[in-house]
## 1
Amino acid sequence: MRPVCPPIRHFHCQLARVPQRRNLLTLAIETSCDDTSVAVLEKHKNNTATLHFHSKITSDNRSYRGVYPIAAHESHQKNIAGLVKEALQHLPPSGSERNGKTLSIRRENGNSARKIPDFITVTRGPGMRASLITGLDTAKGLAVAWQIPLLGVNHMQAHALTPRLVAALDGASLDLASDTRNLLGNVIHSKATGDITRGTEVGRSMEASPPFPFLTLLVSGGHTMLVHSKSLCDHEILASTTDIAVGDMLDKSARDVLPSSLLETAPDVMYGRVLETFALAQSDTKSPSFGGSASQGSSESLYGWKINTPYARSGPKGARSHLQSFSFSGIGSTAKRVVDQNPEMGEGERRHLARDIMRVAFEHLVSRVLLSLEAPETKNIRTLVVSGGVASNQYLKQVFRDALDREGYEDMTLVFPPPKYCTDNAAMIAWTGLEMYEAGWRTDLSAMALRKWAIDLKADDGGILGIDGWHNVAVH
Ligand code: AMP
Ligand code: ZN
């Protein structure tokens, strides 16, 4: 898509930041794929946040063995109004100290005065068009009815900002409970600094955390990209997949490798998760690579097959000639071929194959992180966030920590936000709305859903601020 409003591309989000003297409340809607999700999030003056409501309903795509756009669209249409209705019950009470608008909510024991959100946030793109439209139109309706601004935000920017949401939530819970509950998920420090997973105090600070710049590796069902987040709206894509996403490959490979009894009883179509459970279920002495720390590269298994590491040796500069590229389709097609050649394959060999698929994929992922860290612009970065559904994989965490330590990055902090905030969810959309709102951004009610919408400033569409429909209340 061409930039319709080019000058807006040059505004720097941080410069337009509007200081907030009060708490900010938003109701957020996410419908970009097959999850219908609604959240109510409040950001406090000290940058902590309270999640008053967060719920999602995922369309049942099991019979299609993958996300089916029509089923996803129907599920959004069926569920969005009910979720919003439920969310209203969780809006904070409208106390006398609040100067916002009040909504009277009907409850079993009479009416209750609730605060109307300061604005509505919704995913505007990228995603499946019909799904996005369901959420966007609902959001526009609420914004018009309540006479409040609309923020149509970028789904990928929201994934990149997720660790800042989680730190803010963690800060609020620490302030409220004074305990060490670890809402930040795993913050895994290197062995050199103690090899710990700890609760964190970062959310207490007045600045959002982690501060920019940081690196995010987004590993989901639809995306595989390494992003250098320099500021709220400036995210440079350092590497991305040239074929399919790692989660997509794991899902497809799982369908080839898993015993059919496991596939039939899977609770949803996140077969990658089932693949991990299957691979980890039993220790197998024939698999020394699993749980080991040294990089295995591509070595032949005891069963005679081998999965090649993508882009390992090709090109005159070896792996460096493909440092901006991930590739996963080769891993998936090798796994399929191995099973096709031996349809009666026993469970032990299937388990071994499942482990090797993950090992080669995760070593490939971390190889691009290590190559990117050699560049002058990134060499001082010491925070790597790994987010997206695949980031909940325990083996991936181990492969990353081991590889970073082995290559001299013991001081690199690895942040794995909790899975519920890594998969598609409305809380991350709400947080993105809050940060964009504070930077002065608002979305026109005429804004359309965007099937494609880059987050990189250098992309053809100009990235987050390159598209039409934004206006900034702080720069006029
Ligand atoms: P997302 O696209 O961020 O909603 O994440 C969904 C993707 O993550 C799907 O491809 C899942 O199969 C994958 N996934 C979820 N949990 C795991 C896991 N533990 N190991 C590997 N992949 C996973
Ligand atoms: Zn997503």
## 2
Amino acid sequence: MLIYVDGEYFSPEEAKISVFDHGLLYGDGVFEGIRCYNGYVFKLDEHLERLYDSAKSLMLKIPIPIEAMQEATLETLRRNQLREGYIRLIVTRGIGDLGLDPDKCHNPSVIIIADKITLYPQHYYENGLEIVTVSVRRNYPEAINPRIKSLNYLNNILAKIEGKQSGAVEVLMLNIDGYVAECSGDNIFIVKDEMIITPPAHLGILEGVTRNCVITLAREAGFEVEERVFTRHGIYIADECFLTGTAAEVIPVVKLDQRVIGNGEPGKVTQKLIAAYRHYANNFGTRIFPE
Ligand code: PXG
């Protein structure tokens, strides 16, 4: 495996950053997780845009332009001979001293790791997930905005720890006001009376690339999709529920907090969207290798 670090390629043993990097000391940095399918990178422009937007919000100047980041991402995939896999882009604040001041870090670091992907077990897609609500609330946007995909993921990790204690593979997180926000690493949708509903980004969620793609695919398939505020009750009484995310793609949810959703099986709308998503991912995107 070859890993890109600041313009050079290293083996996993040789790929290193400093213990004085504020990415390590403070979680000061941004990242993206991206998939490639069948030789196509999925929504590369959207992921890169979110990376640069997250950095802008943190006043972190990414040292290379977006076009160079795109080329470095593709080149990392080529050097690793990957047509199917997972890409992790990381930009750290860089080396500073032991104080918080980001202005003392003069050289942000860019890291690109491309690896094979561990897929979710097939039975999750066939039978659906059982999830639980955790007590940990999603970050308040005026404290740390969840729209920033930063290296500080403790909010989500605390939620994940709580979920694992009750055996759940994914967990529902509410925002400070008690409205449904998202899951620890996935966005959430419900289907009620043929209408597809997902929380609006301003509630304090990561605006998922998969989420936005699924909204478009659903509308193209003739479904009505609305961004609406709802509570857990809305999920309990929904006909269907599913999650979206780079790793999970589109995955059905059949139980929340021991309440069976709909008839307890992955719903028809969900199944259609799983198929539409897979078709899109395998046939569209940025080509890794020339024809
Ligand atoms: N919400 C949060 C909080 C996330 O971290 C999503 C939604 C889905 O966004 P995308 O753009 O992927 O549709 C994420 C995804 C992983 C993993 O490997 C996923 C994420 C972060 C870290 C690891 O499962 N983020």
